[in-house]
Amino acid sequence: MKNINFRLAFCSLALFVASTNLKAQNSIETILLQIEQNNKEIQANNALINAQKLEVQTTNNLPDPQVSYAHVWNSKNSSETIGELEITQSFDFPSLYFARNKVKNLHIKGYNYQIEAVRQSILLKAKSVCLDLKSLQQQKEILKERLTQTQKLYTIYQERLDRGDANILETNKIKLELLNATTEWQLKEKEWKNKQEELWVLNGNIPIENLQIETTRTPFPQSFEEIKQVFLNEDYNLLALHEELKANQKQITVNRSQWLPSLELGYKRNTEAGIYFNGIVVGFSVPIFANRNKTKKAKAEALNTSLLKEVTYIQLESDLKQAYKEAEALNETLKAYDDQFVATSDLTLLYDALNGGQLSLIDFFTETSIIYQSQLNYITLENQYEKALALIYKYKL
Question: In this predicted model, what pLDDT tens digit does every residue of 216-243 receive, in sequence order?
Fold first, then answer.
């Protein structure tokens, strides 16, 4: 009976990874599609940016036409009246409208990149949570397996204690290990539930069914320069700042052109003693005061955007380097774990030693704990590796 229990323990541990893949699973891509549709922060940001795009579209509108009517009469003879109707429309020099339209389009293009930047940021956070859920689920299964085997060990030792084949110190040690295994599993279960709630909040507080997340290890990128070029060229924050800078620079040109006078055209009709006078109204205004310091302001805004773009570029490059180095080191460590797991064959040698009487149950229990801990460490390292690569490949989100 004792040997059957240990053989079952070995088989269940050896098939851990395979059993995980047989469960109903959900891909991270499927979950991210749901979050992209349901996330409230993405929706709120889209509404805000759309409002800003509508506002910038109003900057190139014509002024409202003006209509005025005057009716005056002779103070000595009220029957003698004069009526005056005037309708006028003012507008800037035509070239300004073309220039401002280019500025408007650049702003709108930058706003579209801002929408994508926020969406990408939320999805990157959601992907990190998904990777944590996958890791926690794997750790839970290992801890559950460890708990089950510890319970079997405790039962065996309790039976041996009753027969007089074991002492109370050995039994109490396994009882303490059983308590520790139970506590670790319960804490990991709580951590998994908290992470699940975090993912649901990102999904607009809508529960996501089937959180057995399916992923395969992402290959490590061999060329840093190639990944750097794509990473920086396709970063939405940098693209948004690039369009904003172009808009600021174009605005300098617009402000310099605003010394041209504004024009006014209209229709005028006078009525006096039953006689009608029709005519046109032509006028202009010279921008002596209205355009003061606007060019300086546009230059200052362009300088600010240029410096902000430079700072963002440096920070992104630094973040990429750190993530790449971290992923590279973790990839080498994972390879070492892979080789070691294959070389040791896990519990096979321990099982043979136990059957041959070369290993006590306590020693067997201690050695298996090392194997369990190694598996937990492996899962944690893989989680850190995938998170680093998620940042490196965020432009794919």
Answer: 889 999 889 999 999 999 999 999 999 9
Question: Number of structural domains, the chain?
Answer: 1
Contacts made by residues 291-296, CB under 8 angstroms, sequence distance 24+ = 291/255, 291/258, 291/259, 294/255, 294/258, 295/252, 295/255, 295/256
- What pLDDT digit, counting tens, does each position of 295-330 carry? 888 899 999 999 999 999 999 999 999 999 999 999
Q: How far apart are CA 84 and CA 229, in angstroms?
A: 68
* Residues of the domain holding 222: 2-396
Compute, in degrees rounded to 10, the torsion defined by CA atoms 188, 191, 197, 200.
Answer: -70
What pTM was estimated for this model as a whole?
A: 0.83
CATH number assigned to the domain comprising residue 258 = 1.20.1600.10
Write the secondary structure of the chain as one string of H (helix), E (strand) and C (coil).
Answer: CHHHHHHHHHHHHHCHHHHHHHCCCEEHHHHHHHHHHHCHHHHHHHHHHHHHHHHHHHHHCCCCCEEEEEEEECCCCCCCEEEEEEEEEEECCHHHHHHHHHHHHHHHHHHHHHHHHHHHHHHHHHHHHHHHHHHHHHHHHHHHHHHHHHHHHHHHHHHHHHHCCCCHHHHHHHHHHHHHHHHHHHHHHHHHHHHHHHHHHHCCCCCCCCCCEECCCCCCCCCHHHHHHHHHHCCHHHHHHHHHHHHHHHHHHHHHHHHCCEEEEEEEEEEECCEEEEEEEEEEECCCCCCCCHHHHHHHHHHHHHHHHHHHHHHHHHHHHHHHHHHHHHHHHHHHHHHHHHHHCCCHHHHHHHHCCCCCHHHHHHHHHHHHHHHHHHHHHHHHHHHHHHHHCHHHC
